[in-house]
Specification:
heterodimer, A: mainly alpha, flat, disordered C terminus, B: 317 residues, MetI-like fold, 13 helices, 0% strand
């Protein structure tokens, strides 16, 4: 189904803004849901205590492993801590790690990739071999090595996930810049005597960045999953801080059969997050593709 | 072509050397060492600890350790012995690799088997309900982390069938039934994810190709849909498909740490995590270098296969 058709060729059932909104909700309910989640999530990250009824680290052993109820929406864990509050506070860790990781990886990846493409020749060859090495490590392997080397902490987590994503972004951004570097207007700018930095900033980046950015949005979910997986292995953010991965690990290891809610709810929160990231990344990518090649009206 | 392959094989050596150096340096930054793991939490007198360090060669200067390790990498021992169990690393990898490799082979086989027909269906019926349905399923495969899927699956099996997969892994040539009972679950989970990637690649590249003039020509001269797809469209899908399959094989070989841990598969991923947690330097280093080696070889194979799929691609140099 080509999304743009609904707005351009067919006359909308209802005109005006309301019609557009109606068409969006009707034809892309999942996307609308994903976009609606964004402000909600932001609110949740800034003010978790608005939503969380209890202190996430408060232990009430007499209420341990109680099932979901109106008092404890998601039940309680083995220490009698409220799982709903812990999921809400745990979102902070996951999102902060995911967000900072893609920002760092994106900044370095785009810089190195564009630089490598612009220079060409020996520097390019050298940088690409180095990137080959980094690409050879699966993301989780890099994160495990660094988490073990530096000792598990939030900062290490961010840096190591960023390091794992960096080579992929660098590769992508290089490929994206290479084509543009060959174009006539870049040649023209060079002949006119523009400074290389100016050429990169004014001519190459504006054209090479959009597809890379769309991909980076998708990497947010990858980063969040990596954080959870590492916490699950036991090398994540240390215990008192609530984190989804650790909750899943504790829940599945110690009382999986008696209290599945301790595992399932943080897991669902994780899935919803990744889902949103995947959809947003996807839609942005389509949008970028539509913008760059008008002949192609396809969404994935 | 032969020259190209030879040149690429030569290039692997410096890349591996860079990888070795990186891994070695990162591993040596860490505080604490294996002696704490070997002795456990027991209080030991410092001399015993020091003696053990000497014996394991941890007190040598860095360049001596580095040189010694590099030598062990090339002389056939593949990095010497594990500090923890004193097992030869080559034999450790020999034990763990088949598990991971089997899982990868099952997954890739099923994924290709499933994704090719469904990818084609999805592209041909673009926008109709089968396409929407397939896309919804693939979206799930991409968005649901396999950590959660695995746990829910185990929980479901336990609650509804009061059954859980065998705890101990047997190779298929020892106990095929038990092997199948255990391996089917991680294979299913990984197949869902892997085939989602493949279906999307097939679908989007087919949609690209279907709009090309030569496909219209083929259709208008009266060829059957089957013939148009198999002869004119599919060959053009092969390259992106192959790229994606290679990418998936790369992640499957090194990146299924979590599933291997959940299902207790004694594969490379789990071995790597265990070695990393117990600070077993030589094992971590060798495994990391091994993974890089595998990924370099996969890249080379893919580039060579491109040449066979698409004769227009030529490598000179």
């Amino acid at each position: 189904m080509s999304s743009s058709d609904h707005y351009s060729r067919q006359r909308p059932f209802l005109a005006g803004w309301f019609g557009i909104v109606w068409a969006m909700v009707f034809h892309h309910p999942v996307m609308v849901l994903a976009f609606l989640m964004l402000p909600l999530l932001t609110l949740l990250l800034l003010f978790p205590d608005l939503l969380a009824p209890y202190d996430p680290v408060f232990q009430n052993v007499s209420e341990r492993l109680s099932p979901p109820s109106s008092e404890y929406y998601f039940g309680t864990d083995g220490f009698g801590r409220d799982i709903f509050s812990r999921v809400v506070y745990g979102a902070r860790v996951s999102f902060l790690v995911g967000f900072l990781a893609i920002v760092i990886a994106g900044t370095f990846g785009v810089s190195v990739g564009t630089f490598s493409a612009y220079c060409g020749g020996k520097p390019d060859l050298f940088i690409q071999r180095f990137i080959d090495v980094l690409l050879g490590f699966p993301l989780l392997v890099i994160v495990v090595i660094i988490a073990v080397a530096m000792g598990p902490s939030g900062k290490v987590m961010i840096v190591s996930i960023a390091l794992g994503l960096f080579p992929q972004i660098a590769r992508l951004s290089r490929a994206s810049s290479l084509a543009i570097k060959e174009s006539d207007y870049v040649d023209a700018a060079r002949v006119l005597g523009s400074h290389p930095l100016r050429i990169i900033a004014r001519h190459i980046l504006p054209n090479s960045l959009p597809p890379v950015l769309a991909q980076i949005i998708g990497y947010f979910g990858v980063a969040v999953v990596a954080e959870t997986a590492i916490s699950f292995i036991g090398l994540g953010v240390p215990p008192p801080t609530p984190s989804w991965g650790r909750m899943i690990q504790e829940g599945s290891r110690h009382y999986f059969e008696v209290a599945p809610w301790a595992t399932v709810f943080p897991g669902l929160a994780l899935s919803v997050t990744v889902f949103i990231s995947v959809i947003l990344g996807d839609k942005t990518q389509n949008w970028v593709r539509l913008k760059t090649s008008p002949s192609r009206k396809v969404d994935l | 072509m032969q020259r190209y392959i030879a040149w690429r094989l030569v290039l692997i050596a410096p890349t591996l050397l860079v990888a070795c150096t990186l891994v070695f340096l990162v591993m040596r930054i860490l505080p604490g060492d294996i002696t704490f793991v070997i002795f456990g939490d027991v209080a030991v007198n410092p001399e015993a600890r020091e003696f053990l360090r000497d014996e394991l060669g941890l007190n040598d200067p860095l360049h001596v350790q580095y040189g010694g390790w590099l030598w062990k990498m090339v002389n056939g021992e593949f990095g010497g012995h594990s500090l923890e169990s004193d097992e030869q690393i080559a034999s450790m990898i020999g034990r763990q690799l088949p598990v991971t490799l089997l899982l990868t082979v099952y997954t890739v086989f099923f994924s290709i088997f499933i994704s090719v027909p469904f990818g084609i269906l999805s592209a041909v019926l673009e926008g109709r309900w089968p396409d929407r349905f397939i896309r919804a399923i693939t979206l799930g495969g991409l968005a649901l982390p396999h950590l959660l899927v695995a746990l829910l699956l185990l929980l479901g099996l336990l609650l509804f069938f009061e059954w859980s997969p065998p705890i101990i892994y047997y190779p298929p040539w020892v106990n095929p039934w038990s092997h199948a009972q255990l391996m089917i679950w991680p294979t299913l989970i990984l197949t869902w994810e892997c085939s989602s990637h493949l279906v999307r690649v097939i679908r989007s590249s087919m949609l690209d190709v279907i709009r090309q003039p030569y496909v219209v020509t083929a259709q208008s001269k009266g060829l059957s849909v089957y013939r148009v797809i198999v002869w004119h469209v599919l060959p053009n899908v092969m390259i992106p498909l192959l790229t994606m399959v290679a990418l998936q094989v790369g992640t499957l070989i090194g990146g299924v740490l979590v599933l291997e841990i959940i299902f207790g598969l004694p594969g490379l991923g789990r071995g790597f995590v265990q070695a990393a947690i117990s600070r077993d330097y030589p094992v971590v280093q060798s495994l990391a270098v091994f993974l890089i080696f595998v990924s370099l070889i996969i890249n080379l194979l893919v580039d060579v296969m491109y040449r066979f799929i698409d004769p227009r691609i030529s490598y000179s140099g």
